[in-house]
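Methods — Computational structure assignment.
A single polypeptide chain was analysed. Its primary sequence is given first, followed by the predicted tertiary structure written as structure tokens.
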Amino acid sequence: MGTSAANPELDVSVVILAAGQGTRMKSNRSKVLHEICGQPMLGFPLALARELSPREPVVVVGRDAEEVERAFAGEARFVLQAEQNGTGHAVLAAQEALADARDGILVLYGDTPLLRLESLRRMAEIYRAEKADLVMLTSPEPLPGVVVRDAEGRIERIVELTDATPEEAKIREGNTGVYLVNPEVLWKGLAQVDDRNEQGEIYLTDVVAYAVGQGHRVEGLALEDADDCLGVNTRGELAAAAGVARRRACEALMAEGVTIVDPANTYLDVGVRIGRDSLIEPGCVVTGGTVLGEGCHVKPHCTIEDSRVGNGAVLGPSAHLRPGCVLGENVRIGNYVEVKNSNLADGVKADHLAYVGDADVGEGSSFGCGAITVNYDWETKSRTTVGRDVKIGCNVNLIAPVEIEDGAVVAAGSTITSDVPGEALAVARARQKNIEGWRARRREQE
């Protein structure tokens, strides 16, 4: 394959290690399938791999391999590490799949979702400019492995804390495990690594000591933010990573002209897109591939799931758009209104306590308080069609399938089971009957 578009002089192959047991997650599914802001963890390094290289990334899987492969079918080449015996052993499992690697092999991890693309591109720049044989990312905070440097500050080796001396255990610089390494150095180094350590595992980190010992050039790139290399091994770390990802999503949108009143209490998936001059108030949850247009106002505590919303829409407070909704421009969806799998044209209004499900609603129509589409008969779901400029009164039930034609009006309290012609007034309710003296007679009986 050709060279990377981002680094035309460097042909990088990417291997992602995702075979860990994940026992501390205490879960019945693979750790790398747990979601962060709407995306499985493994999706983050795979996205980086696609940006960095046109080569198909290689993913090393172990536990729940079939489930992981199904989730990312067509996005990578998968190899199995049948027995988990350390990071070096995992990379060796991918040796055949990486046989055609040319300039460098980049090692990433399925449970390290917050790395930034610019950091990896900077690694490639250092690798090329310094003619390095190995470039590693380091953290400003201690990690399970620490970076040991010599008196001149050159990287000497990586030591796992479980094997560290008391002096080494005081080192603050952490090893992220992210390496860009010359293929020949990698395979020769792994061939000489053994498992004579406390864990009885083959460490990829020992390749660093091998490279130094053989006189190869080893460079380090220090991350400024330890969040970038946050590894996820527990539910607490999963929540922490999601918090960072949400903060970054909010920061990116604010940089593009979106007002987010309280980013710490705004919950956006990574695939959400919002147009400029939109205002998002606290407590909102926006998920999936939702797209909001320009100038929208989302009031507090709304939930918007995988929907498209046109320019100038006003939602909430406490409105809920379920998946599959398409709203036109200047639509108003108000307090405690739920919309599901519906198409609402420009200017549609449902200001409070309504349910619009499986409906197609024309321009300028409105729903009164408590109006609902009755779309499910316990066997099938049917659609409701509402034309242009239709007025649906309070506490109306539209029993689908039914069509309300352009300009029609449905009186409050009606239950509509048949189509309503255009410009007609539909009234479907019992005539009121007053029983005089009923309350007094009831008290006498008591």
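Note: Residues 1-8 have pLDDT under 50 and may be disordered.
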